[in-house]
Write a structure and sequence with these properties.
Blueprint: H1 5-14, H2 25-39, H3 44-51, H4 55-67, E1 71-73, E2 88-90, E3 96-102, E4 106-113, E5 118-125, H5 131-148, H6 151-154, E6 157-164, H7 172-175, H8 179-187, H9 190-198, E7 202-206, H10 207-218, E8 227-232, E9 236-242, E10 245-247, H11 279-288, H12 307-331, E11 336-341, H13 345-359, E12 371-374, H14 381-395
Parallel strand pairs: 3-6, 6-7, 8-11, 11-12
Antiparallel strand pairs: 1-2, 3-4, 4-5, 8-9, 9-10
């Protein structure tokens, strides 16, 4: 079976290529798994072509992966001369991971299988994140996961990936945070507490970076090599992908568009992008109008009662995002901007169109404007990106695919 053009593009971008040299057994196994992950179900001959490994090597590798239950055989493809071709696919039950998004307004927990499919999800909403409340809810969800997976499958859980803001107690005045809760976060070691609670390996990543990971691996990022990722949540944030690799930067600042200044006054009080283009501003508009502030993340935001306030927020938000895209494009030769967030598809599409129009109001002389594209993952992006951390750490050939540090 030949890969589709989109999947073939992804394969050429990430280039899973093996080596026939000795001592490369585990690496080559990961290369084969990655080739199938990027291209879908494949027969052995196509795997050999994509990975540049010999047919004999592919036969031995796939035999081991079938024995380890990481691959499954699918229905033989007939109709050609000779033996029927047997496509191989990832076994959804081959491995699992748990993704945890700790947000300022909600907690998301996902159980993700080996194909990246979400098997189970849980959500907890709150006015602001409390460490003890999060641990209690996570413990309850883990108990449910254990009851839904057999002991044999529970042993295949590779770990927990946490997606959380770098400074979850920051910007206290903007959100009206309780000082005691902020102090508890300053004392709280999230990774260590969750590792002690679960007994599983724990990795963590900034929430908007995790969302960018999900888009890079499972969304539009498979086809766009260089892009700025924009995720609109309580605070707007993002990520930077260059040459199909996520760049975090020495201090984790790469792609942190929420902190971009919107003025040149030199004042410490100059607004940042997050002061204007974040969902907490839309939430405030809803509450001031006597509406439910939680509607920012669901279909109500596009309904008749809410739309005038949503439209006003979009009109206020689009020009600063366009300004940020101009500044980013002056420093980086971007193919695209991928925009996603915690809102319904109607709001996302309206915001994208407004950003495209607002971009036309700036002077782009000497710079080629990037294409603005809709993200494909949505609200799950941060928790899904977290879950991908342990899966890729244990099964991907390029362990730095989205953990590459600069400097």
């Amino acid at each position: 079976m030949s890969p589709s053009p989109d999947k073939a593009s992804a394969a050429s971008s990430l280039k899973p290529r093996g080596s026939s040299q000795g001592g490369m057994r585990q690496y080559n196994e990961r290369v084969v798994l990655q080739a199938i992950r990027l291209n879908g179900r494949l027969p052995g001959a196509e795997i050999a072509r994509l990975t540049c490994l010999t047919a004999q090597s592919i036969s031995m590798i796939t035999k081991r992966l079938l024995e380890d239950e990481l691959l499954i055989k699918e229905t033989p493809q007939r109709g050609k001369v000779g033996q029927p071709s047997v496509p191989l696919a990832l076994n959804p039950d081959g491995a699992f991971a748990i993704g945890v998004k700790v947000g300022r307004r909600s907690l998301d927990i996902l159980l993700v299988d080996f194909t990246g499919t979400v098997r189970e999800r849980w959500n907890l909403s709150y006015d602001f994140a409390d460490p003890e409340q999060i641990l209690t809810h996570l413990a309850n969800c883990l108990a449910k996961i254990k009851t839904r997976l057999s002991p044999h499958l529970w042993e295949r859980v590779q770990g927990i990936g946490i997606a959380a803001p770098l400074h979850i107690g920051g910007w206290q005045q903007l959100l009206g945070l309780d000082a005691e809760v902020v102090a508890r976060w300053e004392r709280f070691q999230l990774n260590e507490e969750i590792a002690a609670l679960t007994g599983l390996p724990v990795q963590s990543i900034k929430d908007t970076t995790a969302a960018c990971v999900a888009e890079l691996v499972a969304g539009r990022g498979r086809d766009v090599r260089n892009f700025i990722y924009v995720f609109v949540d309580t605070f707007i944030g993002g990520g930077l992908v260059l040459d199909s690799h996520l760049h975090i930067g020495k201090h984790g600042n790469a792609g942190a568009i929420g902190s971009l200044a919107l003025g040149i006054t030199g004042s410490a009080n100059s607004p940042q992008l997050l002061n204007v283009a974040s969902l907490y501003k839309l939430e405030s508009r809803f509450i001031a109008a006597g509406l439910d502030g939680r509607a920012t993340s669901d279909e109500r935001a596009a309904s008749a009662a809410y739309w005038p306030h949503t439209h006003a927020w979009i009109a206020e938000t689009a020009p600063p995002i366009a300004f940020a895209m101009l500044n980013s494009s002056c420093l980086l030769d971007l193919e695209g901007v991928i925009l996603d967030g915690c809102f319904c598809s109607a709001v996302k599409e309206a915001l994208i169109q407004a950003v495209i129009i607002a971009m036309q109001g700036y002077n782009w002389e000497g710079v080629v404007p990037p294409q603005v594209l809709a993200g494909t993952i949505g609200s799950d992006a941060r928790a899904l990106g977290g879950a991908l951390l342990p899966l890729y750490a244990n099964f991907a050939p390029d362990r730095d695919l989205f953990l590459k540090l600069d400097g």
